[in-house]
Amino acid sequence: MNPRGFCAGVVRAVDIVRIALETYGPPIYVRKEIVHNQHVVEQLRNDGAIFVEEVSEAPDGARLVFSAHGVSPAVRQEAKKRGVQVIDATCPLVTKVHLEATRFANNGYTIVLIGHQDHDEVVGTRGEAPDATVVVSTEADVEGLAIPDSNKVAYLTQTTLSLDETAGVIDRLRERFPHIEGPPASDICYATQNRQTAVKEVAPQCDLVLVIGSRNSSNSRRLVEVSENGGTPAYLIDDAGEVDPAWMEGVERVAVTAGASAPDHLVQELIVALKQFGFHDLETVTVKEEDVHFALPPELQRAATKLTTIAGT
Questions:
Q1: Is a pLDDT exceeding 50 seen at residue 313?
Q2: Does 121 qualify as catalytic in the annotation?
Q3: Are 138 and 162 in contact (CB under 8 A)?
Q4: Is 214 among the domain residues?
Q5: pLDDT value for 299
Q6: How many Å apart are CA 44 and CA 21, to the nearest integer?
Q7: Which terminus of the chain, N or C, has fewer Cβ atoms within 10 Å?
Q8: pTM of the complete model
């Protein structure tokens, strides 16, 4: 089904690492996984990227890429202090949430951040205003909130959540805090919304949904939940090698999709593998066309242009 796979933010982040490697040569250090997909990370590691958990693990003066999930101001300050040459691959849609957090905090609001406590994106967003931010994941979490001023409270969301689940939490927040404010537009990214919408439309026509994505990919896990909530069994797999033949018993139609950080070649390999189970007829269902592109950081725009010119001579 379409849309599936890489979103514009992931394309940008992966391109940033690749262009940096081609321009400056390895090693290029990357803080955390550039995106949450083990195949992408392993390929970039083979190309010369070195993945580290913290800025302190990169040598002073090294080139360090911040992942698509964003970082807190404290991480940026540490990088500056150590003279690290930062290349920022933060998804622009995540940056939007960071700016909203800063604006609300500067105006004296308590921020209720809807998301998963330990997800890299939530850690970075919360870091914009740690003393003014509380994190909730469920409607039950909302019940225990103690807000200093119920007239000055706002909510923001992690960009990769389930639309349906988030709507319930937001509704409960509005019931408890009638004056709560939110972002001008939904924080959940276009790619997450589109992939969930595609699953909602296609899954009911099938007996099984296979979602390609790594276990730590929030948006991939949400696709499984969306399918299961609609009554169609679904499994999250890293690649075709994880398909269990037992899943195919009694199955006549299988839907295949991929999270926003999963490369399309894994989808193609899965389609080939499914032929071994008798699935030879392929139908591509496109629910929505996507044509979103994010610009590279200025220093890499120049490098990418130079590489293209060299390649064309």
A1: no
A2: yes
A3: no
A4: yes
A5: 82
A6: 9
A7: C
A8: 0.93
